[in-house]
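A reminder before we start the practical. When you read a complex entry, don't treat the lines as separate problems. The point of joint prediction is that each chain is placed relative to the others, so the output describes one connected object in space. Small molecules and nucleic acid strands, if listed, are placed in the same frame. In the example below there are five entries. Take a minute to note the order of the lines before looking further.
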Amino acid sequence: MKVGIADTTFARVNMGAIAIEELKRNASLRTERYTVPGIKDLPVAAKKLIEEQGCDIVMALGMVGRTPTDKTCAHEASLGLMSVQLMTNTHTIEVFIHEDEAENDKMLAELVDKRTREHALNVIKLLLEPKLLVKMAGMGERQGGPDVGPLRL
Amino acid sequence: MKVGIADTTFARVNMGAIAIEELKRNASLRTERYTVPGIKDLPVAAKKLIEEQGCDIVMALGMVGRTPTDKTCAHEASLGLMSVQLMTNTHTIEVFIHEDEAENDKMLAELVDKRTREHALNVIKLLLEPKLLVKMAGMGERQGGPDVGPLRL
Amino acid sequence: MKVGIADTTFARVNMGAIAIEELKRNASLRTERYTVPGIKDLPVAAKKLIEEQGCDIVMALGMVGRTPTDKTCAHEASLGLMSVQLMTNTHTIEVFIHEDEAENDKMLAELVDKRTREHALNVIKLLLEPKLLVKMAGMGERQGGPDVGPLRL
Amino acid sequence: MKVGIADTTFARVNMGAIAIEELKRNASLRTERYTVPGIKDLPVAAKKLIEEQGCDIVMALGMVGRTPTDKTCAHEASLGLMSVQLMTNTHTIEVFIHEDEAENDKMLAELVDKRTREHALNVIKLLLEPKLLVKMAGMGERQGGPDVGPLRL
Amino acid sequence: MKVGIADTTFARVNMGAIAIEELKRNASLRTERYTVPGIKDLPVAAKKLIEEQGCDIVMALGMVGRTPTDKTCAHEASLGLMSVQLMTNTHTIEVFIHEDEAENDKMLAELVDKRTREHALNVIKLLLEPKLLVKMAGMGERQGGPDVGPLRL
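Here is the predicted structure of the whole assembly.
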């Protein structure tokens, strides 16, 4: 099994390295890395990782700036990643962190690290243990922050 | 006939279990379940249920958070589900509940339960008794709340 | 020639029946009806009417609620109907009425009735007399309300 | 060479006639006209002009009303025209005029006339003299109003 | 290796010439230029450069006006460029400059020049030295302004 890792030079954290470390620590998987300038370059990178490099799943890692134009770029990138999945019948897990999600650089870096690692674990489950996800259905899982858990009745 | 059930670990209610229970109670149908992390992972799951698992219809079950980013994710997921249907000529019934649709956790859980079950009944009609839907055309049906009924003249 | 009629149980007027009546009154055309729960189910219904039932054109009939989520759903449905047309090279005439277009139920029902019938006449022209549309080019035609006419110079 | 001319009965100016007149006055080109009810019907008309009528380029001519729903329709039509171009590798020049671009009917009519004619000239250049466009690259050309010209340094 | 250069007559700077100069100065690459009227014409131009002219990558160069309609056009063009990439498995680097990104014409021209050149260098890396991009992953690179660098911890 091979996991494609697409990340950007725009991001302010080496997200690809974090993802690869977490994947290797938890499973025996090959990885293929592809770094592009910005998040709008991620979808075609993901598609090439799947179709030209034989990846079974891709992590698309990116950071999103604070301006309305940045938000629009993220939306366009997300729609591109959606198309990639439907054109290839292959999961492409989007790991986007918005710069305005955290109060300062330190908290932002921690959020990037945590969300990337937790999505890496999801990738392992999707590839190797999909039944574990069924067991967690409806549990209010969150990547990067505390899980909110199921609704209290 | 086989119904694909795609749901998420992000949701705060086990929507897949509710859908399967309601389907089994009302019809003799096989089901295939596929749980993914979040709603943006649902479209490719739905497509794989149709193309790789032979499902005749899919229920795409998810909850949507309260932030603008959550709303954008729901929009992207909806566009993905639209594409899945047009690529496969197969209905994929979207059952999304927004967290801000209810005042508290209890009411939200009830809404999730009711809407999921009512859409499960729609799935049965689409598969087995499409003429029943024609009879209800224009009747102001709603899933999860009271039907509003036809316009009063 | 066969006209596909796709409508919904969500609508509060039996739009499919109105469309069929108007079509039959004005032309000799066969119709095929397909009722689905909501407007986001219309695109795949339209595509199936074209590809599986051999329809030469489709009317996609629906009502749109008052909330922002309803408006987003309409946008997604419209994009889906756009894709259906481009995938099939077949017109799919969208007849959507927004609940907030009229002041009360009676006026809304009249609007639904009038717009549906006027679009049915457009469907007949597109299928049987396209040159009549060329004659009306730039005439400020409106469906459901009074025509605004060409610009006054 | 054949130019497809798609326009609408919704528009308040006979845009198709203006476009054809300007094309004929400036070049020896055949035209094929296709009038549809509204701008959301233009993309499939454009695709049919290209694929079924053998047009080498299409002008998609329409007017956009003042309401938010009108603006959304224009956006959906534009996305459709984008898809047509990518599905056919053929330019489809969008000539949309928003009703709120001018202060009164007379100025609006003049704007429609001017923009349509200037886009007709662009169509001729794209088909017959593409190198003329390269010469104008970065010159701040505008269709319908005065050119803004290159940035002043 | 051949780089497609798509630009517009709408822009107020000769972006294509700048891109070609920077590419030629830094690498031995052939270029193919295609100028179109506006940014919404860029996607099909990019696709034709790839499929009909054999380009290995494309730079799509454009300027975006200040009005909401201009912003919507840019969004539509971006979605088109996304589709081109996924249909061709080929990078199409979008270089858009918004007129409201700078305070005056002089600063705007400098921004256009700088961003175009820096993206030209990215194009060279993507084509010839992709491993250099991996080395810069997460470094907070920006095109046109100062790099923001990695997060301070």
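Discuss with your neighbour: The radius of gyration of chain E is 15 Å. What might explain this?
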